[in-house]
Amino acid sequence: MPTIEDAIRAAEAGDLPAARAAAAGLAKAGDPRAMRLLGHLHLDGEPTPNDVGLAGYWFFQAWQAGLDEAERDIVRIREPLETAAGDGASAEARATLGLILTFGHDAPEAAVPFFRAAADQGHPEAERMLALLLTEGRGVPRDEAAARALYQRAADRGDPFAQFNLAGMLDAGAGGPADPDGAIRYLRLAANGGMPDADHRLAELLAARNRDRRDANEAVQRLVRAAQVGPPGATYRIDAADGSWSVLVGDQGRSVAMPGLRAEELVGLPDD
Predict the structure, then answer these.
(1) Is residue 264 domain-resident?
(2) Is the backbone of residue 67 left (phi > 0), alpha (psi -120 to 50) or beta?
(3) Most buried of 1, 214, 233, 250, CB within 10 angstroms?
(4) What region does 258 belong to: left with phi over 0, alpha with psi -120 to 50, or beta?
(5) Residue-wise pLDDT tens digits, 28-52
């Protein structure tokens, strides 16, 4: 994988496509310096309103990740960001302003119009964030049914965080009828999309459903995967005795148990 130094060298050499590609991969992996660089790269050349929105988004992500210099970038870009959100009608800029107002200024009531406008344009993160505020009643009256509909829209656009949150509402019957099978379906999408904790919660619901041995084996495999991609040192242990089995992930005390499954029926486990 390219390093941040590779991205900087490409930018200095004027190879902006290579610089953006390298910085984007690193930014999505959580590198705050790459996030800030990606923000600046979106402002190179003749930025469109969406470029301004994306620049603000990555500056904000870098700041949230602990890079103090990015706060100055946010201040410098605030006026063009507001122009892009207004006259430029940029969904990216509107969603970014909503994030800054919600988490940077603790002003969700000011963020709601921006999230709503971007959500009306089909922006999945804005849909998800507006759903979150509606669920919590922050800056807007609490409305679980409206939140569930927004999570559904964002989830169907492929947003893994929305898929995870929608699964929770479907499982609990919040904002509409309970749908355990739907919860499993969206948790599977979220887990496959890299959403933290989705594998473990999916295993719990599969174990609760226990419709057939496919449920059981997928539950075990999901827990093993949760351990493999979890914190350093995370492990798994499988116990089967007295006609039941359980899987414990690391020392987190997180386990799933299902009666009636013999250890020899488990498939797809690592050799060790």
Answers:
(1) yes
(2) beta
(3) 250
(4) beta
(5) 999 999 999 999 999 988 999 999 9
